[in-house]
# Entry
Amino acid sequence: MIEQAFVQILLMLGTSVAAVILFQKLHIPSSLGYLMVGVLFGAHTPGPVIDVQQIREVAEFGIVFLLFTIGLSFSLPQIHALRGQVLSLGTGQVVLTTALIGTGCWLLGLPPATSFVIGAVFAQSSTTIISKQLTEQGEENSRHGRLGVAMSVFQDVTAVPLIVVIPVLGVLDDDAGVLFESLGWAMAKAIVAFLLVFMLGRWLLRPLFHSVAARRSTELFTLTVLFVSLLAAWTTSQLGLSMAFGAFLVGMMLGETEFRHQVESTIRPFRDVLIGLFFVSIGMLFDPAAIPQNWQWATIGTIAMLVSKTVLVALIVRWSGLDGLTAWRTGFLLAVGGEFGFALLAIALDVNAIANQYSQIVFTSVLFSMIVAPFLIRYNHVLAGLLVRRSVRRQNDPETLPVSADATQHLHDHAIICGYGRIGQSVGHFLEEEKIPYVAVDLDSARIKEAHVAGEPVYYGDSSERDILEALGIDSAKLLVISYDDVLLAKKILHHVRALRPDLPVMVRTRDEAHVDELRQAGATEVVPEVLEAGLMIASHALLLLNVPFKRVVRRMQQQRAGRYRLLRELYRGEDVFSDNPNILTEDGLRSVLMLPGSRGIGKKLSEFAFDGVTVSSLVRQGSREEDPLDVFIVEGDVVVLFGAPGTLDRAERLLLG
# Structure
C-alpha cells in the first residue's frame, strides 16, 4: 500500500514538473499546468487515479501559507496607507461583483448560498495573468497597468472575509434568521481571533523572533516560522473558522516587524509546492465529460463575468476621477477570473455550500475567462477606444481643457510632449528654461487642471489619435517626445507621426532595452531606456567621486549613448528561466568561452574568425585582460568573452571550440 502511494506521488510530481516547464515556456500561468495535472490524475479521466482526499489534506496547507504571505504583504500600517483609492476601488469591485452576480443567480432560482459563492468566485481576478501579460506588452508601468495590478493584488485581502463567511453557508438551511445568526457568530469569532492574534503578536512575536534570530540558525528560524503560522491556523480552526484566516492574521502581525522579508523567504518554498498540490487537487474535481452538457451555461457564465466586471470596474474607476479611457482599459484587465476563485470554490465544495453540478459550470466559466484573458489584456486599448466615444473623450467642457487648433495655432518650431507625468513634466521644465516653446497632452484631468492653472501649456487629449496630433500643430513642430512607458501606444503614435511628418524627430521613453529595436523600426528617432540611463548616471557619479576628470566622464557618457549603451548591455544573463521578462532568452548578453585542449581557436588570432553578429569584448589570460584581444594568439586556458544574441553566441562558440 505504501509502495503504491509512493509510486503515485512520484508519477504526480514528475508530471507536474513537465507541465510547469511546458506552461512556463508557453508563458502560461503555472497554476493552469497544475490544474491540468489534476484533471489527468482525477477519477473523471482514464488512466492512473490518485486519492484526492489524501492530496487535499496536505494541499490545504497551501492556502494556509498563501494567506500567511498575503498577510505579510498587507500589514495594518500598509492597509491604512492604502485606505484611499486602491482600498476603496478594490473593495468596491469585489463587493459589487459579488452582489450583482449573486443576485442574478438567485433570480434564476439558485439557492442563496450557492448564488453568493458564485458571485464571490467570479469577483476574483488573476494577478499572475494580468501582470505577466502587461509585462510582455510593455504596459506594466502604465497608469491602467499599475492600477489593475494593485486592485487585483488587493482582492486577495478582500477575499479573507469570504473565507470566513463561505464555511458558514454550507451548514445553513434557507432560514434567513438562522443565516444572519450564524454569520453574526462567525464575525464575532473572527473579531475575537483578530484581537487574540493581535495582542499575542504584539507582545510575543517580536521578542520571540529576536531571540531566535540571535541564535543565527536558519533551521531554528524556519521551524519557528512554521510553528507560529500553523499555531495561528489551528487557533482559528478551533474557533470554527478557516485555518487560512488565522495564518493571514499572524502574517499581518509579522509584516510589521523587521523580520518580514526573511519570514517570506523562508515560507515561500513550502507555499509554492503546497499551492501546486492544491491546484492539482482542484483539477481532480473537474469532470471534462461535463463540458458537452454544461458548455452553454459555462459560456453564459463567462460572458456574464467578463461583461459585469468590465463595466463595474470602469464605472468605479471613472467615479474615482480618472479618465474614461483609463477606466475602460482597467476594466478589461480585471475582467478575467482568478486562481483564488478556485480556492473559494474548493472551500465551498468542502462544506456543501455549492452542488457539484453548479461547481462544474463555475469552474469551466472561470477557465474559459482565463483562456480569453490574454486577448482582452493584449487589445485593451483598442477595445476601450471603441467604447469611449471621441465626443466623450474630447468633450467641449472648458473644465477638461481639451486640445483645440485655436489654443495651439500660435506655436511654431515647438516640441510636443505626449504624456505629462513625471518624465513629461521634467522635459517641459527644461524646455521652458531654454525658452523653447512646447505643448503637452495628457488624459489625467486633475493633473491637467493643476498644471494649467500654473500657466503650463498642457491640454486634455489622447495623443494616439491622429486629429489630436494635428491639433497640437505637428505640421510645424520641431520635436515630439513620447514620455510614458506604453509600447503599444507609442507604436500607434509613431504610425500617425510618420504618416503626417516623416521628417519629424521623435524621442521615445522605454523602461529597458527590450523594446528598443522594435520602437526604432516603428519610426522612433531616439529611444531612451530608463534603466540604462539610470545605470549611466550612477556610473558617471561614481567616476566623479573617484576623481576622474569631468571632461573624461562626459566623453565616456557620450560614447555609450552613441554606441547604444553597449557597455551597460554587456551583461552575463545566467540561466534565468523563471524570469518574467519574455525576451530574456533573445536579448544580447555576454558569454565566457574557455579554450580547452584541442579547441580549433588555439594558435589563431580572433581577427581570423568571421563572427556574424558577435563582437569580442575581451580576452582573459591567467586572470588578466589583454589590451588588444583581436591581435593576440589564443593559447590553451584563455577565456574569450563574446557579446551578442544567444543564437549567434552559440555559433561563435562552436567556431572557437570546433
